[in-house]
Amino acid sequence: MAASEQLTAADKPQPIDLDRCVHCGLCLNACPTYRELGVEMDSPRGRIYQMVQVSEGKAEINPGYIEHIDLCLACRACETACPSGVQYGRLVEAARADIEAHVERPWHVRMLRNLVFEQILPSRPALKIAGTAMYAYQVTGLQTLVRSSGLLKLMGKMGRIEELAPIAEMPQFYRMYGQTLPAMGQQRYRVAFLGGCMANVFFARLNEATVRVLRRNGCEVTIPEAQNCCGALHVHAGLREPARALAKQNIDAILDGGYDAFITNAAGCGSTLKEYDELLEHDPVYAERGRQFVAKMKDVTEFLASIDLNQTDLKPLDYRVTYQDSCHLAHGQKVKVQPRKLLRAIPGLTLAEMPMSDLCCGSAGIYNIVNHELAASVLEKKMVYVNSVSPDVIATANPGCMLQLQACTPAREEPARSSRRGTAGRVLRKRQLSAFVLKQPLLPVQTTAIAGK
Known about the structure:
Blueprint: H1 15-18, H2 32-37, H3 44-55, H4 63-70, H5 77-81, H6 88-102, H7 107-120, H8 124-139, H9 142-149, H10 157-164, E1 180-181, E2 189-193, H11 199-202, H12 204-216, E3 219-222, H13 232-236, H14 240-254, E4 261-264, H15 267-273, H16 276-279, H17 286-296, E5 297-299, H18 300-305, E6 320-323, H19 327-332, H20 337-344, E7 350-351, H21 367-370, H22 372-387, E8 393-396, H23 399-406, H24 430-439, E9 446-448
């Protein structure tokens, strides 16, 4: 056994879920990897067929099977396309857990996974140290030196990680943990905000903007001290037991606080947070608590679109904006209308819908690092649709999407709305990006703009 000694039969792909697939093929065109590769085994239907063979003992968990499962972006677009209600996200996560339980990975891979999933993501001190070190690396000019030296090209995937790394922000959002901030004006709701893990270091200003928006709209906001990483990356990697431990910690930290809603501003996190009931469905103590937690879990766009917004603070913004659906918000959480409703509420803003707005951008957690070439190809196709509507700004609802879109082209100095008809959008530097978000008094929608090719 490898990573998960405690894997149970219930953690493997279940026949009741596998049997829902009628092999109609309507999912094929929705699948980014099938669109790129044209290989049946790299489609949802093909992967489910392989899962069935493994489940029935007709095939082994071999390198070929692992490769096809690992190449899946887990974007869940196939769920939206499926007429039979196949819960593909549940299946692929279970397949990865099954792989993790039966495959002994190379020692260096085990060490790296242990470092990331067990030593850094769940550890507040480790993230604080890593964030501080990254901040020093970036502001001292060392990053510029390393990038200009060509060293990153020799570092493989580690070099790719550096290239995609967001700007570390000081002060970190961790300083807000344990605080309860009053509503601005009449209090209408009490909410708990989940700051995530990496977002506390790299998207601190965005988290602050989210809290401020909630307060301006009548929410008393608590940032629970005992919360931790949501476990999304653990679930996607097949590490179910560590994910369950994090889920229990978050449930205990938030559930009994008497809140009207639990809020996240990261779609990837939200998708997992809303599935704690599935993750803990066989736990005798936490199954019911998981269901209660999920009932109050909301994406910030979902929550804001459901209440009467404070319209008095909105100022006109002369931007042409296109909205990129985050996969785990659109397909995992079925939230598509709400972000657009918020964008349309901004005076002066023009919302230009791109074709295939819910096609994956290629981020998918750490997919754009471990499968860089395929992720880049997926992004290239996405940019064709983006550029077709000539936006000043791309709005999205997930940090991973934001970073992937920013990585498409080098940053430029000009403001986003200069000569907006001249090219298919302009680039905001990452620091300008944070400032752009902070200027919005009501909408903490994550935004970026990227130049046309």
